[in-house]
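Consider the following input, taken from an annotated entry for UDP-3-O-acylglucosamine N-acyltransferase (Fimbriiglobus ruber).
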Amino acid sequence: MNLTVRELADWVGGEVLGDGTVPIRAARTLSEAGPGDITFVDGDRNLTAWRESHASAAIVTAVVPLNGRPLIRVTDPLAAFATVVLQLRGNQNKSRTGKIDPTAHIDASAVLGPGTTVGPYVVIGAETVIGAGCHIHAGVSIGQSCRLGDAVELYPNVVLYDDCILGDRVIVHANSVIGADGFGYRMQGGRHIKSPQLGRVELADDVEIGACSTIDRGTFGATRIGVGTKIDNLVQIAHNCQIGKHNLIVSQVGIAGSSTTGDYVVVAGQAGVGDHINVGDRAIIGAKAGLSKDVPAGAKMLGAPAHPDIEQKKIWMSMAKLPEMRKEIRRIKKKIGLEDE
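Applying the prediction step yields:
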């Protein structure tokens, strides 16, 4: 598909600077773009790369000056570039046909909203209600009495156990499991006896769950994920957790049972949160940190066991000096006539 810079600007509501008749055949990033391509420059940190790029045009912010090639000026170049990429590829939502594949098994008591697409070999249980404009990809299994809002997307092989509740515009990526039993056992007569796992999982509006992540149902109540929270791949959230709004939880994080987070919390990759721990609003938990106690609002935690970031950096600096300190101690002992043990 060949379009002009001006036609692309019309798609994104941008202002054209320079020759708007330059033809564009594809949209590529700065490192990959060549003649005939449009790219994007998000702020002044990429100005050198833009000058060196062979791209024919760019989508930019106001800080990017003209350099002889046409620009499309917008407030959010990344979002505008994504729109252009999708348009040039052709509408990626053509698969949202509202059709139901004949191999899908849908219980007669289930209700599907208008425009919902159901792919091959999907299973939808009794009394489940699915909203409008949803896309249920191949191999998804949805249990009984689930409630899904509008525009939900479940990628291949997602599993929703019974009684799960998903808000509007929830996205769950491939092979994730929502609502499995929590890991709860009691010791009786020398054996581990399973504790009841009778609650559910609730994902609020605009939650996104990465591939191969798991969120366990509550023991009696609900495990909840707050509005707008984004969870990466390979994350485990245990039973009874209450995750706040607009959290970012990065890959391989594990959050143990009955822990809570406030709003706008960031938990970086491979961090571990112990059970019954509260993490306050806007706290940041560094990569591989291990939390064994509550974290106040706004704190930045590093290390395992985790300490406030300034304290932990001092600990790391001290550890780096240990070999030198050990040599110095040996010299002092030798000088005063003490033998090493």
